[in-house]
């Protein structure tokens, strides 16, 4: 009896489909309206006044709650998760050195935009420029993107011949190399001392800036705008020739190559796109912080980034965004228990891996691939 | 399928694929030993031999999965040996696999579109920025056919934009790819399940989907690796018809197959391999009578004397 009941319930559920299916079945104008409403809500978020939600003990700058600063962090990490999702979720390449690109983005705005950076000082002397000259903030954006992309290609060129775990190890090394270089190249990065006076959109940190440290709402809106732009671009990639090539490579690289897909080229592109997004995220992070130093970019952060993608649902943009928001917001919200953060974090990871290995909002394809592999493993054991 | 239709009689005996003294060793194992044969344009060449004779290895040497230890493969006047698999595909050689290797999570249609993508150019930059813009041909322009006023003005706006700024190569290729993929699915007879995941398709459909995916790369030569494995007689007959139709559309076919009735019925010539060596070559009738071939398949009696 109960068996029948559950079967019927399952059939009904299948008919209704998941939330995503029901969403896709709506008429186009309803989806556009829904998306617009969602975007408006996201921009409104800093004014949201739900006491338990927005109460954060980060610092006292914003009347005891740095709600919009945390929102900004969430947005930056969402950009990172979206970028890493291109590499890990779409192309299926495990990259454990993603923090390297994040650091490069932050250091590009610091090295070229801050009057305190050795690079800018050297340029001032060489070109006979005034003491307060530095590269404009807006010009640092393309610098950050290009530097990150170039480093992505430099990392990918020799290493993308490796597969699976080997690639993961090499990329792990890359993340460390960037951090160690940043710490030891005193003449370029001022080493462990770090670089201060990193500019924002309204110039170097100063009182009365629109993009200041007291009121961080403009920063959040800026980052959110970048997030929306990134979502727009990555969606274009997903449903197109490169997106299909990535999927084909992930599913069967050799068969894809025989069908005319050049795996190396598309894997390198995935790396470059991921690196560029990591660079953009680092750029935003560095400009908001106003101060960049090597210890902000240690290897734990790389692991955290991968965790965001895996917990949220590798391959699905909504999933990885949720993963990024949760893994940024929850540690801030529960700062009281920060001594136990690592413990809770570990337990949560184990719980997700046991209960929902495909992630919170999985990509349909990814979930099935995982399921198939589990079935194969069962068969092999039996 | 208007592609490639030419008069085959005129160009008979023009070599398309030349296997020239190809040897392939894996350590001490000689998988292919000085194999020579030629496939002529427009013909269906059968490659047969007992299990382990080196047929699939030969395919792998042709399609760049393995590099021959010695010898050369030439295709359409160009050296194939040493090129990477995707380059060889671009030259015009497509293949299917003995153990089906589709992209299981993609739909049937998407699988074929991946094949079509082999001839497309739009890469990451073109996809992101929708460049370059191409002046559309009249039939590529958006249609204005809605009766609803708002929708109609939206369509008119799109038409005006397409006329003024052109249409991106990405969009044109996506449309062309989808249309061609659908046509190929109809050609192999599985269009009714175009939007189903490849892994959920019945076995026979998967085999035919592999053929459609290979054809989508617009090859001159199609290599089929045991396409009839696991088929019942009715399905084999359908496959026979399909291979003939493929040839009639101007493709050359290299066919590995164990089913003798199919091979003898469909091929123009046959090459027989045994233990990596070519032991016979000729028309089906000649090969059938060849004592070496009979010995290879049935074995020789040790105490024949």
TrEMBL record, chain A:
Q: Which locations, inside or outside the cell, does it occupy?
A: Cell membrane
Domain of life of the organism encoding this protein: Bacteria
Q: What is this protein called?
A: Branched-chain amino acid ABC transporter permease
Supply the InterPro entries for this chain: ABC_transp_permease (IPR001851), LivM-like (IPR043428)
User: Does the keyword Calcium belong to this entry?
Assistant: no
Alphabetical UniProt keywords? Cell membrane, Membrane, Transmembrane, Transmembrane helix
- Source organism per UniProt: Pilimelia columellifera subsp. columellifera
Query: What Pfam families does its record include?
Result: BPD_transp_2 (PF02653)
PANTHER family xref list: HIGH-AFFINITY BRANCHED-CHAIN AMINO ACID TRANSPORT PROTEIN BRAE (PTHR30482:SF10), HIGH-AFFINITY BRANCHED-CHAIN AMINO ACID TRANSPORT SYSTEM PERMEASE (PTHR30482)
Q: Where are the transmembrane segments?
A: 32-54, 66-88, 95-114, 134-157, 219-237, 268-287, 299-330, 342-361
Q: How does it sit in the membrane?
A: Multi-pass membrane protein
Q: Does the keyword Cell membrane apply?
A: yes
Main location (coarse class): membrane
Checking CDD domains in the record gives:
TM_PBP1_LivM_like
Automatic annotation (TrEMBL), chain B:
Task: Name the domain of life.
Answer: Bacteria
Matching SMART domains, A to Z? AAA
PANTHER family in UniProt: AMINO ACID ABC TRANSPORTER ATP-BINDING PROTEIN, CONSERVED COMPONENT OF ABC TRANSPORTER FOR NATURAL AMINO ACIDS-RELATED
The entry lists its GO molecular-function terms as:
ATP binding
| Protein name, UniProt field | ABC transporter ATP-binding protein
Which keywords has UniProt assigned to this entry?
Answer: ATP-binding, Nucleotide-binding, Transport
Q: Which Pfam families match?
A: ABC_tran, BCA_ABC_TP_C
| Annotated ABC transporter domain residues | 17-300
């Amino acid at each position: 009896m109960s068996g029948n009941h559950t079967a019927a319930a399952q059939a009904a559920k299948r008919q209704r489909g998941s939330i995503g299916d029901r969403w896709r079945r709506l008429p186009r104008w309803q989806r556009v309206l829904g998306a617009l409403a969602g975007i408006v809500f996201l921009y409104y978020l800093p004014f949201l006044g739900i006491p338990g939600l927005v109460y954060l003990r980060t610092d006292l700058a914003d009347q005891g709650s740095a709600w919009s600063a945390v929102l900004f962090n969430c947005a930056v990490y969402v950009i990172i998760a979206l970028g890493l999702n291109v590499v890990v979720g779409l192309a299926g390449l495990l990259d454990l050195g993603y923090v390297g690109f994040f650091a490069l983005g932050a250091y590009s705005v610091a090295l070229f935009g801050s009057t305190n950076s050795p690079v800018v000082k050297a340029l001032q002397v060489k070109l006979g420029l005034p003491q307060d000259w530095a590269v404009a903030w807006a010009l640092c954006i393309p610098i950050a993107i290009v530097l990150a992309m170039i480093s992505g290609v430099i990392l990918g060129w020799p290493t993308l011949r490796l597969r699976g775990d080997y690639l993961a190890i090499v990329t792990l090394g890359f993340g460390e190399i960037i951090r160690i270089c940043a710490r030891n190249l005193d003449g370029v990065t001022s080493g462990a001392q770090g670089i201060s006076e990193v500019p924002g959109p309204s110039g170097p940190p100063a009182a009365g800036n629109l993009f200041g440290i007291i009121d961080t709402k403009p920063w959040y809106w800026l980052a959110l705008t970048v997030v929306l732009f990134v979502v727009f671009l990555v969606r274009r990639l997903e449903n197109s020739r490169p997106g299909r090539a990535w999927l084909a490579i992930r599913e069967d690289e050799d068969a894809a190559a025989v069908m005319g897909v050049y795996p190396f080229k598309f894997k390198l592109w995935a790396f470059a796109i991921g690196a560029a997004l990591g660079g953009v995220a680092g750029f935003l992070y560095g400009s908001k912080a106003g101060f960049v130093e090597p210890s902000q970019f240690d290897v734990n952060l790389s692991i955290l980034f991968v965790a965001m993608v895996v917990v949220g649902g590798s391959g699905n943009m909504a999933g990885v965004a949720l993963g990024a928001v949760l893994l940024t917001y929850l540690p801030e919200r529960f700062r009281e228990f920060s001594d136990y953060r690592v413990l809770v974090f570990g337990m949560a990871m184990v719980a997700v891996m046991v209960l929902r290995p495909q992630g919170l909002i999985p990509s349909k394809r990814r979930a099935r691939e995982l399921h198939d592999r589990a079935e194969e493993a069962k068969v092999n054991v039996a | 399928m208007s592609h490639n239709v030419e008069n085959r009689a005129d160009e008979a005996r023009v070599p398309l694929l030349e296997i020239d003294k190809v040897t392939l060793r894996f350590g001490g194992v000689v998988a292919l030993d000085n194999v020579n044969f030629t496939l002529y344009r427009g013909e269906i060449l059968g490659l047969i031999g007992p299990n382990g004779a080196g047929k699939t290895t030969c395919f792998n040497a042709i399609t760049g999965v393995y590099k021959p230890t010695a010898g050369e493969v030439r295709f359409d006047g160009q050296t194939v040996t040493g090129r990477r698999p995707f380059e060889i595909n671009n030259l015009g050689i497509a293949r299917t696999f003995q153990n089906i290797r589709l992209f299981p999570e993609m739909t049937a249609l998407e699988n074929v579109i991946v094949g079509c993508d082999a001839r497309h150019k739009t890469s990451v930059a073109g996809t992101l920025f929708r460049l370059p813009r191409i002046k559309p041909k009249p039939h590529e322009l958006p249609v204005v056919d809605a009766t609803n006023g708002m929708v109609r003005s939206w369509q008119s706006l799109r038409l005006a934009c397409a006329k003024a700024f052109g249409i991106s190569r990405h969009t044109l290729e996506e449309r062309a790819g989808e249309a061609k993929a659908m046509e190929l699915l109809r050609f192999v007879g599985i269009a009714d399940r175009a939007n189903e995941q490849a892994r959920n398709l019945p076995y026979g459909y998967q085999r035919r989907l592999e053929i459609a995916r290979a054809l989508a790369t617009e090859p001159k030569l199609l290599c089929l690796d045991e396409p009839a494995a696991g088929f019942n007689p009715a399905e084999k007959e359908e496959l026979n018809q399909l291979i003939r139709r493929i040839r009639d559309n101007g493709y050359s076919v290299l066919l590995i197959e164990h089913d003798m009735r199919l091979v003898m019925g469909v091929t123009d010539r046959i090459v027989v391999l045994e233990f990596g060596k070519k032991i016979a070559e000729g028309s089906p009738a000649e090969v059938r009578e060849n004592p070496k071939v009979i010995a290879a398949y049935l074995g020789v009696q040790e105490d024949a004397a």
